[in-house]
Amino acid sequence: MLNRMEKIKKKKEAWETTTLKKVLERFPERKKRFVTGSWLDVDRLYTPVPQSEEEFIEKIGFPGEYPYTRGVQPTMYRGRLWTMRQYAGFGTAEESNTRYKYLLSQGQTGLSVAFDLPTQIGYDSDDPHSLGEVGKVGVAIDSLKDMEILFDGIPLDKVSTSMTINAPAAVLLAFYIVVAEKQGIPAGQLRGTIQNDILKEYIARGTYIFPPKPSIRLITDIFEYCAQHVPQWNTISISGYHIREAGSTAVQEIAFTLADGVEYVHAALQAGLDVDQFAGRLSFFFNAHNDLFEEIAKFRAARRIWAKLMKDRFGAKDERSRMLRFHTQTGGSTLTAQQPDNNIVRVTIQTLAAVLGGTQSLHTNSRDEALGLPTEEAVRIALRTQQIVAHESGVTNTVDPLAGSYFMESLTDRIEQEVWQYLDRIEQLGGMVNAIEKGYVQKEIQNAAYQYQREVEEGTRIVVGVNQYTLEDEKPDKILRVSPGLREIQIEKLRALRRMRQASRVKRALQKLEQAAHNRNENLMPYILDAARVYATLGEISNVLRHVFGEYQESIVL
Amino acid sequence: MKRLTEKILSGDVRAIARAISWIENDYAQKEQLIDDLYPHCGNAVVWGLTGPPGSGKSTLLNLLIARERMKGKRVAVIAIDPSSPFSGGAILGDRLRMQKHSTDSGVFIRSMASRGHLGGVAGATADAIKVLDAAGFDLIIIETIGVGQTEIEVVEMTDVVLLLLVPGLGDEIQALKAGIMEIGDIFIINKSDKDEAMKTKAEVEYVLSLNDNPRKDRPNPIFMTSAVLNLGIDELSTGIDLYIEELRVNGLIEDKRRKRIAREIRLMITAKIRREVEKQLGLNERIDSWVDQVYRRKRRPYAMINELSDTFFKKNRT
Amino acid sequence: MRRKIRILMAKPGLDGHDRGVKYISRALRDAGYEVIYTGIRQSPEAIAHAAIQEDVDFVGLSLLSGAHNELFPEIVRLIRKYGGESIIVFAGGIIPEKDIPFLKEHGVEAIFTPGASFKEVADFIEQNKRRLSH
Fold first, then answer.
1. Which of A438, A550, A556 sits opposite B93 (nearest CB)?
2. Same domain, A113 and A23
């Protein structure tokens, strides 16, 4: 083995001094330094590195086995393709319901609900804060009533539903469970995911309500409740997606997301849960950008690091607890408003990255997302992109096809190393909550975002159609518009709801919730479910909790 | 000018804001304006709040404003952040944590960059305090990052200095020994929920005991707060009022204000004369050639400087 | 003494995508301007009051959620109402081409859409600062 390595090394040196040298003298390379999209150095050529059998097993191994570098299932896409899940929702519950039925009829296999911002921040549509925002970036849900309409005619035991909801995740999950009850489906049969990841809201996404402590209590309450009553539900989707959208590097995306994960595991253990009781229901959510190899290596490294963390640090025994399962979305911030058709090509590369990286589900962005809300046609092309990769490209025929590529393995190792450095640093700062409160995490991301943007402006980083290969006159694109009268419609619905429901029961349910919120030992889920059943609104429930928990104030670092 | 003065006296926000801009930009008209306003000054109490970055000043301030508003006081805040030494620009972000008071007509918040002011930002602060005082604010709070000489000068323009500390900053106490300690009247240990908070308090007490404090009989109050958890704010607010009341009773507040005026006069006169000297000598235009001559050893430094200052004095003697 | 240009940067509405506004704030600082940054989820009232109290020359708004037609005109109206006649308002974010004339009619003087460079923002400020009253 070593002998063989020596020979290859010698041969490489010979190649460098003869073949390569001659060419370099006449044709210098385009750049002095080649780097990945996230500034990791890339060598001209990668060659075999010495590796024992033990090292192979430890680092690369086999799919479906620790450390899961090659994937979480032994057969990967030979067994079942990833779930094609397009994040969608806008306007009223009625409009979104129609869109979901359309998507299901087009071969989509799971639903992904986008809520409008007032819903995500726990305001009813008639709250003054909601002005201009009702139904804009997702569907407006004010109460159980809207949720009943949203899933009308969709059998909740047949679909898996992902909900992008964080600060008020407990409330929306409660609405979902009650809708299922009304459809006659027991909670035990429900499958889906709530995002429920508050830490990245403080870091990157901004739809927080409460300060970290009570927010994390809500999260562990959900873990505990679902472990008993909704066992097939993924109780959290720990998200790097938004961290990357905020401008982080690939390494930072993984490092900060896994550090968030570590924080949640700590919190759950502190709340008295056993690691194998909840860890198998943790899932992740990552971004797929354009630097193909870096992205694939990123996913592989993430699986390996999480497996190690769960096994060595938290003593997880159950194999499922050690598996990093993840959803991917293609990178919204990589899309350009200029020449939007080019985005279809970007999304294709990103789809390949996600699939070659072993994703469990995927959302592909629509070509027109830098312009506004996607049109139906654009959403269809995005879904077709996945279907073409799945059925025509052939990349699904074997498991982890890039394993063993000298470059791929080297990059995977390099990313792993850099991520561990961040994890150590965050540990030194006293964990992720402290690191966020100190602004460390935000500052790291901002510096990367700033550098990226500078490079685009200086033209050292080419973005096709933006700073090179631009067009003089671009035709404006068709875009989707949400009817402006939406807020009025929702307000009218709320009025009707308040007339229809029994005010005294609502009041009682909210009072009980408030008492429970004061008592740290109470699990809040049953109280929120009770409030949901009597049609307390999202805003009313959230305001009770705001009153008890207070509100988070962002700490800026610029 | 007269209209601006009247508007300020009537509490017009736009006029107050504009006057502070004049001061910041060092417009010549500011002198007349301040003199016109001066007879109406003297009613406001001025706090200085300082502490290292990350100690939670703005968050605490946000809560203190709410508390003082409940007492019926009109509150103005000047939040000072450093300018970038490279570009001269600044990002002023302290307002963010107090933004919920933005719509309260009884609160005025102004962000100020330290800039490269002649006379220093301390001079500008002193003038801004006069504008706000004349405009009828009962309480004026000056917030700075307590790291350098400039910031110390700024908070010395106030009646009472609140020094904010947090546990676990490590070098904290070293910094205290280095001199910031002397300017503090009231000490606040923020983030009191942190484990090491009591230890920090003990350290502060120890360092204070080393001080040759002329008022040993009247120890500096130390308060424990948690701005994030909203703890200890009532006690702090009451404590500051008591402290100031005590200063008043003992006549010490008069001492302080006289000292403040003395500082101001020194600062202003030095700045004014310096500016005149620079102007008459054409310092900014000629400095490069002087540097060149001294660098190439064509001239001796003292000989050159004396020659220049002699020219100046001769010219101004007549 | 050279007068400093002061710029208020704010995010009205509820979206938390502050990558762009933070980038522009930082770039403005590095170009020598004084930037007052007020953070996310700012109400039109809070932005208008801040603009007056800070006596800024420009107000930069960033919004990605699509609520611009409701919020931007309201902010301009309130700034004028509280006496900021000469404050110049510009904006950035995901704003469809079609909405731009409407926003301009309502006092938003420049709109920077995705892909716009900092240089365009800086040029706008340089070209317009001469109009400032004091």
1. A556
2. no
